[in-house]
Amino acid sequence: MQALIELIAGFIAMLAAAALAQFGVDLHKPSAPEREVHRVVDCPQSSPRSTMIATPSDHC
Known about the structure:
mainly alpha, 1 helix, elongated
């Protein structure tokens, strides 16, 4: 008997949601977007093994 009552209540809720959807009403709140987590690596404290020197180009 309890299962029948829950089945009827679920059916009525489904009909109500379908009827409200015709008017643009949404019963489910959109979930908040999850924040992105960016992992960063600390720069090594030792000096780089090679150094590159760039010279300005005359074409710019």
